[in-house]
Design a protein that fits this description.
Number of helices: 10
CATH architecture of the largest domain: Orthogonal Bundle
Oligomer: single chain
Order of helices and strands: HEEHEHEEHHHHHHH
Distance between the termini: 87 Å
Strand content: 5-15%
CATH superfamily of the largest domain: SLC41 divalent cation transporters, integral membrane domain
Shape: elongated
CATH class of the largest domain: Mainly Alpha
Strand order of the largest sheet: 3-4-5
Mean pLDDT: 87
Low-confidence stretches: none
Structural class: mainly alpha
Radius of gyration: 28 Å
Length: 298
Amino acid sequence: MGQTIDYLRAEQDLPEEFYQIYVVDAGYKVLGTLPLDKFLRTPRSVKIDTIMNTTFVLVKAEEDQEEAARSFERYDLVEVGVVDESGRLVGVLTIDDIVDVIQEEAEEDIRLMAGVGDEDVSDTTVDTVKSRAPWLAVNLVTAVLVSYVIGLFNATIEQMVALAVLMPIVASMGGNAGAQTMTVTVRALATREIEGGRVRRLIRREMVVGIFNGAIFAILIGLITWLRFTNAGLGVVIGMAMVINMIVAGTFGILIPLTLDKLKADPAIASAVFVTTVTDVVGFFAFLGIAGLWFGLF
């Protein structure tokens, strides 16, 4: 320890800031690390190899910066060594470097979820249109599908105008619930928090959450509908549709991003379009279908 302290004091070619010392062999392969707080508290006569950490995290020089950022988040690091293909230490990354990376990646994910890619405020009108138009076109196709489902129940809606007033409520609640689950899932995929058996557990959890949320809001909207239209049956119908759509929203809010990720597509880009479509279609179909059966409107 004493020799190392004297060396550090005399050496001119050191980084401006560093948080730990790396112990390497003659080939510059890392043998261990020693945090500065532990280093400064140890007597000069102690040998470094007796107190160094032999369990440590390293990142490869060719590794994607997002993967390096995940290592910092996963292991609560402030600094990590960078090694080349041969395992030789070639540099270090510190937390101030990674904060910039995390901000860049977070901004990229937000843009992708909105379907605007790498669009910037300085982009030309043509570039902006090219960036947004494809996903708006996909959204148009899904909107036509939703309108087709509604069209199947034209006769039902004509016989009970209240259905047209209440339809958006079921779809909107399902869409928001699906968006909540989808956002959590996309973030978990981005940080590699979903692995193996955790997938099944998350799917079960979201289904149960959908059941509970569906029951809570089914009771609320059922009572409101009953009081507003003085029709208890209509309250029961919208309550049943609410439960169904909330369960579907939670389930597909996690299944769609997972499926896109398996297909090597970026779930942050396309998930919102498909989740919204599913909740809209199921919401309208469940509400109008149950209403038709309940009131014998078919």
